[in-house]
């Protein structure tokens, strides 16, 4: 259900008729930013050309950089890559086995005197325990960045994702809740950060006071973003109904563990998942994959297969003897403790268990159809 019609065309027409297509806080980008800030409940919003650049820029406006550490999580690589982009060492905190979210208890154990920032991924429509993470960051003077690429309309303790950290980052890439093709947004309550990002770091008027590149959004993209913002709640209502169908498909199945939604969390439908426990019941993972394929259940297995620190881009960054190191331009400046499975034992035993399925169906009917196919695969497995 991605609708692009007269609403988008009218805003784009306005931009074209204005004759001013470049990023402009008094134009469409400003309108999109103000509407977005109001939507999520933050003081400021700053348009960007993607979430990835916004994450890197968030690290660059934090105290993290050369010879410092940034705590991130290991299910996806975006936080770790942003840390490395600023030549900081990514340190991976473990996750909770039934949510895939950063575990605050593990964060506490990873803090050293070099820790200057933290990037928490609010994965697949669910927020991590953001109040606890913020408290830890405040206690240790750590700059908190939230990756909210999957989190329009998701809340923790009544506050929208992205508003617990010093900076929250959203993605408008085509596959996300609010698609503009590509694009991103940073949100913050801090006037000084907003000023820095707009004036000093975006070539918006003042000469750049810091080393940075241009990550601006243009007026045409902002016009589409403003129109999509008016639609996004409606999209997510449908995705949430699809989530419910997918959850009910695994009800009563003891070898598929549902993803836990904490009572303080409001989830938004994005990617649905549950966790394979069949090995504990003598079932074959390969057979489940095959059965799912045969009945046409649109399931993914194992997602990225292993925690992000196992990938060369990270391993070679801390291993100063790695031949692969030369291949990557960004390095941790000092030989860190090598990454090992002991870093995140829960992630090691959880990621391969992920069974996932998109929940962003255009209609409830399609979500229901997928749920029925999943149920069918479960029934076949149960019959042996
Ligand atoms: C969790 C997460 N963070 C960041 C990004 C990067 O977003 P973008 O494509 O807007 O750079 C993605 C993209 O898939 C993502 O899933």
Q: How is the secondary structure organized here?
A:
Elements: H1 6-18, H2 28-40, E1 44-48, H3 51-60, E2 69-72, H4 78-85, E3 89-92, H5 104-110, E4 115-121, H6 130-139, E5 143-147, E6 155-156, E7 159-160, E8 167-171, E9 184-188, H7 191-200, H8 219-249, E10 256-258, E11 265-266, E12 271-276, H9 285-295, E13 300-301, H10 312-318, H11 345-350, E14 354-358, H12 364-383
Parallel strand pairs: 2-3, 2-4, 4-5, 5-8
Antiparallel strand pairs: 1-9, 6-7, 6-11, 8-9, 10-12, 12-14, 13-14
Helix pairs in contact: 1-8, 2-8, 3-4, 8-12, 9-12
The structure holds pyridoxal-5'-phosphate.
In CATH, the topology of the largest domain is named Aspartate Aminotransferase, domain 2
**Oligomeric grouping of the chains:** single chain
Query: Architecture of the largest domain, CATH level 2?
Result: 3-Layer(aba) Sandwich
Query: What is the number of independent domains?
Result: 2
Total helices: the number is 12
Structural class: alpha/beta
Shape: globular
The percentage helix is 25-40%
Mean pLDDT: 94
Biggest sheet strand order reads: 1-9-8-5-4-2-3
For the largest beta-sheet, the strand count, sense and barrel status come to: 7 strands, mixed
What is the total tally of β strands? 14
Low-confidence stretches: none
Describe this structure in words.
With 384 residues, this protein is α/β, with parallel strands linked by helices. 38% of the residues lie in helices and 15% in strands. The protein contains 12 helices and 14 strands. The protein is globular, with a radius of gyration of 21 Å. Pyridoxal-5'-phosphate (PLP) binds at residues 50-52, 76, 78, 121, 147, 149-150, 171, 173, 184.
